[in-house]
Specification:
By secondary structure, this protein is of the alpha/beta class. It has helices at 21-31, 57-61, 75-86, 107-113, 137-144, 146-150, 163-184, 197-204, 206-215, 250-259, 263-267, 274-279, 281-292, 297-307, 370-377, and strands at 12-16, 35-40, 65-69, 90-93, 118-123, 191-196, 231-236, 242-247, 310-313, 332-336, 342-346, 351-352, 355-356. The longest helix is centred in the middle third of the chain and has 22 residues, at 163-184.
């Protein structure tokens, strides 16, 4: 999908964020068509130089933006920042409370000087006893109980991605879209939005909190949980691969047993109901595992797909770069890193009028747009807004 016709064409976002949560919000808005101007210090966003597991942070979460370098210790750059904010619809930041006040960008000053501005602060916590604390994805997973639910009480385990940071950026985008929608109704004032990383994670574990609230039973972690279905497990196959199979309806139970020669389970009068089968999992699963191990993953996939039964091979992230559904037209989009190197990344997980979003985005070179945007603010250049996309 090209830059023209995207739903946020004409919206200008000024972003002063780093790491993952704030940049995710800006990246989503950029893919939806907003012009996102990332303001960086002279040394650049520190995320640019991360290695190891952090190597992908900057390119993944800063695609489609423009980069402006400002040294806010200099009065002239501080003035440029305020002129930029005056031209913007949205301001994104994710600094600790009090830090931006020192640079003349605190909430009171922003509201006084830029009453039209939608200000979205991505923070560790919402207002309350912990609002002063910094937070990290792993910290809030431990605090919220998500790590205990993912691992065990004895060995809490974080989920295997920056899930809360990413989801926090999504909630930021949702709130900003709501504020923009309100402006369409004639409201001229901006909005002060605060997004909490901890509260985001709390939202993820709400189902377990409410389970305890309603039943008085402490929720069991995923490895220790009671299964709600007779077959909902990972099995070894004839090769070295494994497969997950979920048999969750009466029709699936019937067709699964018939397909895999498990007639004795269908004929067993003690297995007439789903509840009977759940209680008999200790003897059902070994028998099912014995049969599943006769087939390789490709054969099992064909059989289970034909039966409309949920299944999945146990993939690693790199395996997805060979998956036929991921490789369908538009499943992966081609983007360009700041060094000019092409890389593939999953498209934004929506389709807009049948099209995928995110093809051709560029990761900005540090300060690449500083001169152009300064000239634009001075009125000496065209005010046409161009997203950071490949030609």
């Amino acid at each position: 999908m090209t830059g023209t016709g995207l739903p946020l064409d004409g919206v200008r976002v000024v972003e002063m964020t780093h790491m993952v949560m704030g940049p995710t919000c800006g990246m989503i808005l950029a893919q939806l068509g907003a012009e996102v101007i990332k303001v960086e210090p002279p040394a650049g966003d520190k995320t640019r130089s991360l290695g190891g597991m952090g190597t992908s942070f900057f390119p993944v979460f800063n695609r489609g933006k423009r980069s402006v370098v400002l040294d806010l210790a200099k009065p002239e750059d501080c003035e440029t920042m305020h002129r930029l904010l005056a031209s913007a619809d949205v301001f994104l930041e994710n600094f600790r409370d009090g830090l931006l006040e020192k640079q003349g960008l605190g909430p009171d000053e922003l509201r006084k000087n830029h009453p039209h501005l939608i200000v979205a602060g991505h923070k560790g916590f919402l207002s309350g006893p912990y609002e002063h604390r910094p937070a990290l994805d792993e910290v809030v997973q431990m605090m919220s109980g998500l790590a205990a639910m993912t691992g065990t009480v004895a060995k809490p385990q974080r989920v295997g991605s920056s899930a809360n940071d990413i989801m926090g950026g999504m909630f930021g985008a949702i709130a900003i879209l709501a504020a923009l929608y309100r402006k369409r109704g004639g409201v001229t004032s901006g909005a002060d939005i605060r997004i909490g990383l901890f509260e985001n994670c709390l939202f993820l574990v709400a189902q377990h909190m409410v389970e305890y609230e309603m039943t008085g039973n402490k929720p069991r972690s995923m490895p220790e949980r009671e299964h709600a279905w007779p077959i909902y497990d990972i099995f070894d196959t004839a090769g070295s691969d494994r497969i997950f199979i979920g048999v969750v309806t009466e029709g699936h139970w019937q067709s699964f047993c018939k397909e895999f020669g498990l007639q004795e389970l269908l004929d067993d009068p003690s297995l007439c109901s789903t509840t009977d089968r759940i209680l008999a999992r200790a003897r059902i699963i070994p028998r099912v595992a014995e049969e599943i191990k006769r087939w390789n993953v490709a054969e099992l996939s064909e059989k289970l797909d034909g039966l409309n039964i949920c299944f999945s091979p146990i993939n690693r992230p790199e395996d997805l770069l060979r998956d036929p559904h991921v490789l369908r037209p538009g499943g992966l989009v081609n983007n360009i890193d700041a060094d000019g190197k092409a890389f593939r990344v999953p498209a934004l997980p929506i389709e807009w009028d049948g099209d995928n979003i995110g093809e051709g985005l560029k990761v900005p070179v540090l300060g690449a747009d500083t001169t152009a945007i300064r000239a634009e603010l001075d009125g000496t250049a065209s005010t046409a807004k161009t997203a950071g996309r490949c030609a």
